[in-house]
Specification:
- This protein is α+β, with helices and mostly antiparallel strands.
- Helix content is 35%, strand content 20%.
- The strands form 2 sheets. Strands 1-2-3-5-4 form a 5-stranded mixed beta barrel.
- A hairpin with a 3-residue loop joins strand 2 (20-27) and strand 3.
- The mean pLDDT is 90.
- Bound molecules: zinc ion (ZN).
Amino acid sequence: MPARVSEALVLRTYPLKEADLVVSFLTRDQGKLRGVAKRARRPKSPFGAGLERLSYVRMSYFQRETRELVNLDSCELIRSQFDLVSDYRSGVALDYFAEVSEQMLPAAEANEKFFRLLLAVLDYLRPGGDAESAGRAWCAATYFSLWALRLSGWLPELHVCLGCGAVLDDPESLERAYFSRGRAGLVCGHCRRLPGVGSNWELGVESRTIAAEMLRQPVAQFSQNRWTSTTAADLRRFLVQQIESHAERRLVTAPLLEESVAAP
Ligand SMILES: [Zn+2]
């Protein structure tokens, strides 16, 4: 049984038997794995607080070719997200990151860029001042959704109408753009009116500009002050719908993220 040590982010745990946990975790070098952590729910377990959601750890485990589940041996905490959970919106954003990663990533397929994306948005959420805490969560969730789709190969074309092929963001003649659930892309104002197309939501010009910027720049470059609950809300809706159609299920955490707009 070869022993491995991988940097990892814990995505989710499920209780197993009396004292054990099944842990889904994303490693930097081996992709998403699932393993059994024996006695993890007992006091003085070798896992300590390392199995909290999105804990950044060095995980020691044994992998057997014939088994889907690895055996977790222990973990060493590199960084807990405990300081983020005290902020309600950041806590909801963590739930959202973990759920999307769990749903989108295939098992045992290395995706180091996705791993680094998670580290970057977690860093971005860290407080710089209370006033911008809401802005941070919105910006991080939007950035993460966009790049999670791109790094999974599921980000649709954002510049061209799916119906007629018209360029939507030609600066000489900017077209309005619409989306609907289950359609992988955008349609122009003309195609939207064709029978059977019926696109329900508009993706505004400001949000399309933000999406283009996000695809060019690291998240740390985005000013948090600029973000309110309504900034790019249409873009988040579009991205969540795209994620949901590929995951073939609704995300539990997506409505919580939008509802936290109203939270004090
Ligand atoms: Zn069109």
